Amino acid sequence: MYSLYTDAATQPQTGLSAGGILIVHDHQQTQQKVALAATDNHTAEFEVATLAFQRLRTHLGDAVATASVLFHTDSQIVSQSLAKRYAKHYQVELDRLLAAQASFQLVLTEWVPEKQNRGAHTLANQALHAREEVK
């Protein structure tokens, strides 16, 4: 079982967004910081989750068909949308995320409070600060 944690950070004044991805498997952690195209936080949360599943799928190759993932997010809109398979204002983003999850044997989504998502949260903020320094 893979544990996957994601979080996004957005600076409303500049519209810059970045994300953090934390993958845990067999007591090993993989940390990734990513720049995102999204300009609002909700869209950024969907985007980083989609990227995380795409990257994990690429990493696993053919083994993806037998892989199970416990996906942790502190985004209520992402968690609730996945549970309902519907998002009033973010259906396109949700459909992309569902497509990215489709290759895996099993995906369980768990909403967690921000304090339990510190690893991904810290990575997202570090990536956002790096983007702001470059600008």
From TrEMBL:
GO terms for molecular function: nucleic acid binding; RNA-DNA hybrid ribonuclease activity. It comes from the Bacteria. Transmembrane segments: none annotated. Residues 3-87 form the RNase H type-1 domain. This is Ribonuclease HI. It comes from Levilactobacillus namurensis DSM 19117.
